[in-house]
């Protein structure tokens, strides 16, 4: 299951409730994640631009987006970041190298064609 980091910001009353009802708030948040077939890995209250950071797993990006949209309807803004696994990075590297090789081959062909015309 893909892992996501959600940066959470509540409206004023939600932020206060989160700090004062941390234990029950954690259980409530976990239940809301589970309603969307997700798994709560961790939930950390923070001080600063955001009120909390959660690490969650969902079956697919659509399930995570549905959760985020439902949360926003409840007065909580969530910035969604998908965690990249090592396999994702290897795949990106392979695609990038293939693209570089294709560009180099095209440039080489163009130079060869230009030499033939001379």
Question: What can you see in these coordinates?
Answer:
This protein is an alpha+beta fold and 118 residues long. It folds into two domains: 3-82, Alpha-Beta Plaits (2-Layer Sandwich); 84-118. The protein is 58% helix and 24% strand. The chain is built from four helices and four strands, in the order E-H-H-E-E-H-E-H. It has helices spanning 12-20, 22-35, 61-73, 86-117, and strands at 3-10, 39-45, 52-57, 76-82. It has a four-stranded antiparallel β-sheet. A hairpin with a 6-residue loop joins strand 2 and strand 3 (52-57). The longest helix has 32 residues, at 86-117. The chain is elongated and about 80 Å long.
Concise overview:
The chain has helices spanning 12-20, 22-35, 61-73, 86-117; strands at 3-10, 39-45, 52-57, 76-82.
Key descriptive features of the protein:
118 residues, 4 helices, four-stranded antiparallel β-sheet
How would the blueprint of this fold be written?
Layout: E1 3-10, H1 12-20, H2 22-35, E2 39-45, E3 52-57, H3 61-73, E4 76-82, H4 86-117
Antiparallel strand pairs: 1-3, 1-4, 2-3
């Amino acid at each position: 299951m893909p892992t996501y980091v959600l940066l959470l910001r509540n409206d004023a009353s939600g932020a206060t409730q989160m700090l004062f009802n941390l234990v029950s708030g954690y259980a409530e948040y976990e239940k809301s994640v589970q309603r969307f077939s997700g798994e709560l890995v961790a939930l950390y209250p923070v001080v600063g631009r955001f009120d909390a950071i959660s690490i969650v797993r969902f079956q697919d990006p659509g399930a995570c987006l549905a959760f985020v949209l439902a949360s926003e309807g409840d007065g909580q803004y969530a910035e969604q970041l998908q965690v990249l696994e090592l396999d994702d990075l290897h795949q990106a590297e392979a695609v990038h190298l293939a693209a570089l090789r294709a560009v180099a081959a095209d440039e080489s062909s163009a130079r060869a064609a230009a030499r033939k015309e001379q």
